[in-house]
Structures are given as structure tokens and as C-alpha cells.
Design goal:
Fumarase C, Chain A, domain 2; two-stranded antiparallel ribbon; 462 residues; Ribonucleotide Reductase Protein R1, domain 1; 8 strands; Fumarase C, Chain B, domain 1; two-stranded antiparallel sheet; mainly alpha
Length: 462
């Protein structure tokens, strides 16, 4: 049986594991919120600890916090930021509104580490007190939303790198297949010629636009409300504390952190809603692209089969030799889950009341998951499938020559009425449009091939 120590908070005595670096309020939260079984996101934990470190330095400058206490708190924070004691951040992601339990988890762990380093004991909270010293000039209400913003800023480069990597691969494929003519399809019906390079180029451009939209949110996310304290008024803070704390965070994160409108930063999560919206937009585009790739790879004998995706695992427990487009099926599922996370964020953003939005713990968790899942899923799909796509050029050529929609190309050459007659004959006989126009003497087969190639390449092609 684990040994215990007894600590006290304002509600009375609490039993805490002897080897734990957290304290009474964290232990209470663990009992109160056995909900998801998920510990807090690591980027969020580190972001919150950076806030504690920045606050210690900012509070020391006007003499509110002694240099000895600042140094002890800073040393404790540095250990956590180096990757130690992460397992001591244990409060469930679904917890007390606004994140009080996580704030106290940080305060208690940092205080205990600092006190033991100074010769004290866990749970003694002297000379470093979790509330009076580690939490000096702070509140859950300004540290948690700031930590969420810092955490998503840490995740954003990883997400945009994954987007850029996938976009770059589509661009490479587009260049490689720029002359591979195929049948376009609208309404899932045969349409005029295009190239598979055009399709890939469209995917690349769309993803680049998604990346730019995500990156454009960085300035808003760098605007924080740290120093607003409990209600955005700066209660129990020194006059210059917000600016000093923001400056310290800018130094610690390498981001251009600045002070926002303190009341608004606590009331409104608009920037996080915008971030969630752009993540949703990315998921929507990835869903569409995944659907296209799965359809283009359908077959191999009875589907479109215009592309082949690299096999990464057997596809069936009963059908020998079957291989499925599993990486893009996976990406579809991740995207659907991300759409659900966005819906949850939307509800939580509008749920703020008066001076505070208390839905921040789950709001942050939903954003963290969406960003991590999409990052991992895109990287996996790019590395394991996209880079190995093989285009079946013979299949593309077969379909384009069978398409009655090629008669559309004849409108400007022989007129709509004659083109319609060619289309009718092709539809009725099953013969290619190319053969019919040559047989009727309307155009040579070679000239028709040039016309198809020009149409596939689009405006301005030679």
C-alpha cells in the first residue's frame, strides 16, 4: 500500500501519496474528477509552468517576491521545463470550471520542488507558499487562457509543417504528372479532359491556402491577458506586472507576446474560435482530398484504378490479396473527429458569462487534440502513402478515349450541332469520339489528339 502524508486546505485534511510532488488541492481534484482518465496535454503543462516562471521574474522586479524565492521557483520551473516531473501533473482534462485545479496542481508541484531544494519538506509549504508565492499576482482566470494560447502557439508550427509537407508532395506529383491526360469528372459523371497533374496541383494550392490561414492567426494568439488577475482588473498585481510578465514570456517562448485588453482576454475566446474554425476548414479539405484519392484508387479491376496507393497492410481477414486505402481512411476518420472537436469548441466559446469563460479546460483540450491528431495523421498519410503514389497512365488514357464528353471539344471546331451528332453516335455505338470524327472526315485523329491535349492542359497551353 502506498504511504500517505496528511495535508490541509481550506476544507480540511487531505491524504496525499507520500511520493507525490502535488498537494491537497490536486489530490481533491483527482477524487472529484475521475472523468476521462487523460492527464493534461504536455504543451499545456509546459506553457503553464512558463507562466509561473515569468511571473516569478516579473514579481521580483518591484520587490514583491524576494530574490531567494524567485530563484527557488525558477529552479523548480526549469526542472519541469527540462522534462522532469511531468507525471506529477495529474488533474483530468474535464475538471473544475476555468481550470482552478490545474492551476493549483502547478502551484503545488513548483512549491514542493522549491521547498525541498531549500531544505524543507513536501507539504510543508515554507518558505515557498503555492498561493502566496508561486501564484503571486495571478489567478486561474488569467493563467489558464494564457497557457492555452501559448500551447497552441507551440503546436501550430508542427501542424503547418505537416500541411506544407503534404502540399509539397502534391506539388511534386503535379509536376511529374502534368502531361498525364485523364477524364475530368463532374457530378461523378464523365466530363471534359484534364490532367491528373491539375488535380494534384489543386490539392497543393488548397493546402497552401489552409496553411496561410492558420499562420495568419499567430498575432492574435500572441495577445494575452496575463495580469488581469481574477476579473481583468489586475487585482493584487503591481502596476507594471502585465507588461513585465509579457516581456518575460516573449523571452521564454520566442514569440512576440504582448498584453491585450485584459478584460476582453478573459471574457472572449474569439481567437481560439477562429483557430478552431481554420482547423475545421483544413479538416474539411483533407476529407475531400482523401475521398478523391480513395475513389481514384478504387479497384483494382472493377473501380477507377487511375492511381495506386502503396500497400501498408493486408486489407481483409477473409479475402486473400485484398489491399485497402487505409491511410486515407484513417485520415478521413481523424478529420471527422476534428469536426466534432470544433463543434465542441464553438459551444464552449459561446458559453462564457460576464467576466469569465469557465469552459477553458475542455476547450483547450479539444484544440490540442485536433491539432495533434491532424499533425500526426497528415504526416503518416504523406510518408506512408502519398510519397509512393503510382499513376496508372494507361488506365487514364483508356478512360479519356472512351469518354463521350470529348465531343464538347468539337463545339468550336465543327459547331454544336455536328458535335451533338458525334456524341449521339458515340453513345449509341460505344465507339470513341476520336474514331467517329476521323471517319466522317471532320478532323484527323492526330489533330483530335492535339485538341484533347490542349483542352486538358487548359487556357494558355500550346
Amino acid at each position: 500500500m502506498n504511504e500517505l502524508r496528511t495535508e490541509k486546505d481550506s476544507l480540511g485534511e487531505v491524504q496525499v501519496p507520500l511520493d507525490a510532488w502535488y498537494g491537497a488541492q490536486t489530490a481533491r481534484a483527482m477524487v472529484n474528477f475521475p472523468i476521462s482518465g487523460r492527464s493534461p496535454d504536455k504543451d499545456f503543462v509546459l506553457a503553464h509552468v512558463r507562466i509561473k516562471l515569468a511571473a516569478a521574474h516579473a514579481n521580483c522586479q518591484p520587490g514583491w517576491l524576494s530574490e531567494q524565492k524567485r530563484d527557488a521557483i525558477a529552479a523548480a520551473c526549469d526542472k519541469i521545463l527540462a522534462g522532469e516531473y511531468i507525471d506529477q501533473f495529474v488533474v483530468d482534462r474535464f475538471q473544475a470550471g476555468a481550470g482552478t485545479s490545474h492551476n493549483m496542481n502547478s502551484n503545488e508541484v513548483i512549491a514542493n520542488l522549491a521547498n525541498v531544494a531549500l531544505g524543507g519538506e513536501k507539504g510543508g509549504y515554507t518558505p515557498i507558499n503555492p498561493n502566496d508565492d508561486v501564484n503571486m499576482g495571478q489567478s486561474t482566470n488569467d493563467t489558464i487562457p494564457t497557457a492555452i494560447r501559448l500551447a497552441v502557439l507551440a503546436k501550430l508550427p508542427r501542424l503547418t509543417a505537416a500541411v506544407n509537407s503534404m502540399a509539397a508532395e502534391f506539388s511534386r506529383l503535379a509536376e511529374r504528372e502534368k502531361d498525364t491526360v485523364k477524364s475530368g469528372r463532374t457530378h461523378l459523371q464523365d466530363a471534359v479532359p484534364t490532367t491528373i497533374g491539375h488535380e494534384f496541383a489543386g490539392y497543393a494550392w488548397t493546402l497552401a491556402r489552409c496553411e496561410a490561414a492558420l499562420d495568419a492567426l499567430r498575432p492574435a494568439l500572441c495577445e494575452i491577458g496575463l495580469g488581469g488577475s481574477a476579473a481583468g482588473t489586475g487585482l493584487n498585481t503591481s502596476p507594471d506586472y502585465p507588461a513585465r510578465a509579457a516581456s518575460e514570456l516573449a523571452h521564454l517562448t520566442g514569440e512576440p507576446i504582448r498584453v491585450g485588453q485584459l478584460v476582453a482576454q478573459m471574457q472572449s475566446m474569439n481567437d481560439l474560435a477562429r483557430l478552431s474554425g481554420e482547423i475545421r476548414n483544413l479538416a474539411l479539405e483533407l476529407t475531400r482530398i482523401s475521398n478523391d484519392l480513395r475513389l481514384l484508387a478504387s479497384g483494382p479491376r472493377t473501380g477507377l484504378g487511375e492511381i495506386q496507393l502503396p500497400p501498408v497492410q493486408p486489407g481483409s481477414s477473409i479475402m486473400p490479396g485484398k489491399v485497402n486505402p487505409v491511410m486515407f481512411e484513417m485520415l478521413n476518420q481523424v478529420c471527422f473527429q476534428v469536426l466534432g472537436q470544433d463543434a465542441a469548441v464553438s459551444y464552449m466559446v459561446q458559453a462564457g458569462q460576464m467576466e469569465l469563460n469557465v469552459m477553458m479546460p475542455a476547450m483547450g483540450s479539444a484544440l490540442f487534440d485536433a491539432m495533434d491528431w491532424l499533425t500526426n495523421a497528415m504526416n503518416a498519410a504523406t510518408e506512408k502513402n502519398l510519397k509512393g503514389i503510382v499513376v496508372n497512365r494507361e488506365r487514364c488514357a483508356f478512360f479519356i478515349h472512351q469518354s463521350v464528353a470529348l465531343a464538347t471539344l468539337l463545339n468550336t471546331q465543327i459547331g454544336y450541332n455536328q458535335a451533338a451528332e458525334v456524341a449521339k453516335e458515340s453513345e449509341k455505338s460505344g465507339r470513341p469520339v476520336r474514331d467517329i470524327v476521323a471517319e466522317r472526315g471532320l478532323m484527323s485523329a492526330a489533330d483530335f489528339d492535339v485538341l484533347v491535349l490542349q483542352a486538358a492542359h487548359g487556357v494558355g497551353s500550346g
